[in-house]
Every structure is written in structure tokens, then in C-alpha cells.
Amino acid sequence: MTLPGRSLGSGKDCDSKRCVNWGRATLRTIEVKKGENVKQRIKQRWGWWLTLVVIVLGLIGVGLTRVNAGLYHQTVAQVTHVQTTDRSTTTDEFENKDKTLVQMVTVRVLNKAHRGRTYRIKNTYTRSGAMDQPYRVGDQVFLRIPSSQHNAVTIQGLKRDTALAFVAWLALALLLLIMRFSGLMAFLSVALNAVLFYAAIQIDLATNGGHIYLLFGVLAVLFAVLTLWLVLGFSRQMVVTLGATMAGTGLAVIISLIVFAVTHERGVTYESMQYVTQVPRPLFLVETVLGSLGAVMDESTDIVASLFQLKTERPDIAPRQVFKSGIQIGRSIMGPLINVLFLIFMADTFAMTLLYLRNGNSWGYTFTMNMSLGMVQSLISGIGIVLAIPVASWLASRLMPKEVVA
User: Fold this and answer.
1) What are phi and psi of 39, to 5 degrees?
2) Cα separation, 324 vs 135, whole angstroms
3) In this predicted model, what pLDDT tens digit does every residue of 49-83 receive, in sequence order?
4) What is the mean pLDDT of residues 155-172?
5) What percent of the chain has pLDDT over 90?
6) Which of 256, 290, 266 is nearest to 386 (CA)?
7) pLDDT digits (tens, 9 = 90+) for 280-310
8) Which residues of 149-160 are buried (b: 16+ CB within 10 A; e: fewer)?
9) Are 231 and 370 in contact (CB under 8 A)?
């Protein structure tokens, strides 16, 4: 019990009226905090229920992909029986051995005019699976049923929507369970970026690549703005990260263009871009911009987020210290990020590299035709990663507010 004339916890004399007012203010503060805690618990509870509903609905959607054959214009069938009838071993001039197997696949049509009919189809495939594949009981496949009886029914490929839907559901479920609202925003940003990318490709096809630089330049800016806005929200941190991303990517591309001009692009084998029906050089530069954008955005987000958190914990930190801290953070994440890019590049070219080497091609020719362009793109992205460190650190030190509210 507090004696009259003493303040609550202050240790100094005060009159009764001041102590009563102080006590009332303290009680109001406690009540406000309790109300905020209650609201937070209610928000978390609703968040868990929403997460559960989304996960259950997504799982139901994955299951529905097994019975959606009626939505397809192509003929869909399900494999009901498989029998292997023949096996043989082949060896080519480079001593590469492979096994060829023959299956008799029984399928039952699930849609269109031939629904309910069964067909027995011969399927020849190799163990390597380079140009073909085996089929198993339960697989759903696309059929080609000719109008003429003289032509045989053939399997055109697997119906893969169930696998794709399951992977998408699994990614969304993990994001919601682990990251909650932030995970949902990240997934939404990926979905919207995919829609924008699809729209850009359709425009490029319609214009036959006539405005490819302008089109994908605008697309890169939209990617960055949309992703950072959804993930970070519209804030000063988002603006600083966007500025660092655009500056780092732009400087990397400018430096690469200068190097190309000085060296006259010697060693850049655009002819290795197979199956391209447009001028390959603009496509290569567009690929480079989009690839560098992702790497630089990743690094800039880490640096700026760390510096804003540092400012929250130490509000009195000077801009010079913020800049030095950003350089130190960048140095610690630069190496792993560049190695991640290299590993992604290696994984992308691994299969074709083995195919080239196993068919008697030299390492030099294999690198030139399969790996050189990817290596150039990785180097340009590495330049962007290095340049983003001082840019992000400087922008954060100058544009960060003097006081950051925790």
C-alpha cells in the first residue's frame, strides 16, 4: 500500500492529487496494453483459421485436378494396365549404352466423344528418357485419336496439372504456416509477376520483338515495384530498396554494354541460343536484365532491412556508421549470393553439358555452345551484386529517417 504524499515508484514527494492522476494514467496505459494484447490474440487466432481454410481448399483443388478431364479440349485418358513386352540394349559409336523397352499401354478415355472407350497402345522408350518416357498405371495422358481408322491412336504426353497444382499448394501451405501474412504476400507477388511476364511475352509475340527493350525494361521496373510493395509495403524502406535495386542493375548493364562495345562482343556466341525465331542479341540482353534484377533485389533487400533494424535498435547511430555497417553486411552476403548464382547456372546447363561430352564433343566446344552465355550472364549479375552494396548502404544512410519507430 502506497502512503499518501509519495509518488508510485518515483521515490520523491508529491501531493495526493498528482499521485492519483499518475495512478489513473498508469491504469489507462495498462488497460490499453491489455486491449492491444487481446486484439493481437484475436488477430492471430483468425490468422490460423484463415491459414487452415486456405490449406484445406487448396488440397481439395489439387484433388479436383484428377477429375477435370471435361475441361480440356484435348482427349484425356487414364492408364489402366501396362505390360512390358520387349527389352534391348543399344550402343552408339561413342560407347554410350542405353536400353530400349516396349510397353503395351491400356488406356480408358475420360472425355469427349470417345469417353469410356479403351485402347491398347504401343509405347517405346529408353532408360535415358531423353526424348520419351514410360507410363504407369494411374497416369493420365493426352491422346491423339485420328478420324481415319488407318492411323493408330497415339499418346501425346502426360497430363501434369495434378503435380503442378500439388507443388503450388505445398509452397503456399509452407509460406502460410511459417511466414503467415508475409508468406501470403510473397506468394501473391510471384503469381502477379507470372501474369505480367505472360502478358509481356504475348505482346512481344504480337509485335515480333519490335519493342523488346522498352517492353521488358518496363516489365523489370514493374517486377521490382510490385514485389517490394507487396513484401515490404509502401514505406521508406521500400523506396530505398527499390532505388538500390534499380541503380545496381542499371550500372551492371551499362558496364556490360561498355565492355561489349570495347571488345566488339568477341566470344559472345549468340548462335548457341537454339530455337530462337527473333534476333538473339536483344533476347540475351533482356535475359541478363531480368536475371540481374532478381539477384540485386535479393541483396538490396537484405542490406536495407538489416540497416533499418539497426537504426531501430540504435536510434542515435550516425549516417557514416550506417554506411559502414551496410558495407560489412554486404561483404558477408556477397560471396554466398554469387555462389548461389553460379550453382543455379551450373544446374541449368548440367544435363546438356553431359550430353555434349558423351557425344564426343570437346570441353572447349561444349563450353562455347552450352555454357558461355550463361557464364556471361552470371558475371554481369555478379557485377550488379558488388555494386549494389555501396549503393544500398549510401541510400540507406542518407534517406533513412532520423528516428525509426520500433
Assistant:
1) -60, -40
2) 59
3) 777 888 888 889 998 999 888 889 899 999 999 99
4) 90
5) 31
6) 256
7) 888 888 888 988 898 899 899 999 999 998 8
8) eeeebebeeebe
9) no
Q: Looking up cell 509519495, which residue turns up?
A: 6
CA 325/CA 57 separation, integer angstroms: 45
> What are the tens digits of pLDDT across the range 307-348?
998 888 888 888 899 999 999 999 998 888 888 888 887 788
Contacts (Cβ under 8 Å, ≥6 apart) of 261:
none
- The sheet that has 154-158: what strands, in order across it? 118-126, 97-109, 75-91, 140-144, 154-158
Q: In whole angstroms, give the CA distance from residue 125 to residue 76.
A: 21
Q: Is 92 helix (H, G, I), strand (E, B) or coil?
A: coil
Q: How far apart are CA 307 and CA 392, in angstroms?
A: 10
- C-alpha cell read off for 48: 490460423
CB-based contact 384:292 (threshold 8 Å): yes
Question: What one-character-per-residue DSSP string does 191-223 give?
Answer: HHHHHHHHHHHHHHHHHTTTTHHHHHHHHHHHH
C-alpha cell recorded at residue 10: 518515483
Count the Cβ atoms, other than its own, within 10 Å of residue 286. Answer: 20
Cross-strand pairs, 102: 86, 124
Distance CA 169, CA 29 (A): 44
In the numeric block, the cell 570495347 is attached to: 262
